[in-house]
Amino acid sequence: MASASSRVDAFALFVPVVVPLMLGGGGYAAYKVDWKTAITHFLTGPGRTSRILMLFFCWFNWKNLPFAWTFRVFYTIMYHHFIRKSPPLGPRALYKPMISTTRAPLLEIDYNLHKSNSTFFTDLDVSRSHLVSYLLRSTMRKLTHNTRSRLVLDPKTKEPVSGPLGILLGAVTCSFKKECPPFKQYEVWSRILCWDRKWLYVITHFVPKGTAKPTEWLDPGFRGVKVRSGQDATGGWERKIIATAISKYVFKVGRLTVNPALMLSDGGMLPERPGGWMSGEAQVGDESVDLSDVDLDKDGEWDWRRVEAERRRGMELGSRFHELDKAHDLFDGGSQGALRTAWPN
């Protein structure tokens, strides 16, 4: 979910085998260590100043240490799949954002003394993993064992498709609006924007922590919806958005592409729709239905008409983002010459 090579089925081996070995080894090592002597030596022994400073440096910059990105992404997926297996909240939660909080440590600060633009993409990996793992957990587990669940069938043989489940990142773009100062806490809001036959589009907003106050909490830690009575979601946050990104995912079982509507429908995120969500020429349902009477700016029941109207509104932006794929055609292989750096990378 974080990169173009994410494989969910690896957890089928990782969790029951590797995790117990790690916990057992760590527990045995902790049992054998004389912690009182070790801590005393660490705080009072020769070179203590350097060790203590290094400890503080690592503490405040842990998200940029070696393997920290791997831990953040894998822990996120494991959290939703094996630790906090909350049931989905249905269509009401389909377009709700998943909020995660982090900060800009020293190692993410560039020469302009604010968060480097390149570091936003690691936060996007974690935020998208939170969202997709939570909303599609049950479907992802089925597709990991598709030969048994028979959720995805080969269109030619009508037999279940075999192969690993892949959730592949097809593209991501990020527009930067305001700087993020050092050590500033900020929130990453990711939600589903729309989908078509192949791609699931995710939109992400970076905002300072506490800037926006959602009227409802759909946090996976709750067994239901938490409502903030009397709270107003507005309050000047429009001028405080740090950055906005759009990403697109494709789901595959083996070499076969899975319709995102199947992922969402099986996970209980889509309401019943006449003709289904994968009918029509574009396999996204009947697009000839007139939905102009649906007012998305007013609160209402998330029936199929409202869900489809929101999907179509999101596709107005998603389709333009998809057009960026044509930029590949601009590469000419240097037929008109090229410039070369003095030192090869």
Automatic annotation (TrEMBL):
Q: What is the organism field in this record?
A: Emericellopsis cladophorae
Please list every transmembrane segment annotated in the UniProt record, as residue ranges: 53-75
Keywords, comma-separated and alphabetical = Membrane, Transmembrane, Transmembrane helix
In which family does this protein belong, per the annotation? Belongs to the lcsJ thioesterase family.
Q: Does the keyword Oxidoreductase apply?
A: no
Q: Keyword check for Magnesium, yes or no.
A: no
Q: Report what the protein is called.
A: Capsule polysaccharide biosynthesis protein
Q: Which Pfam families match?
A: 4HBT_2 (PF13279)
Q: Which domain of life is it from?
A: Eukaryota
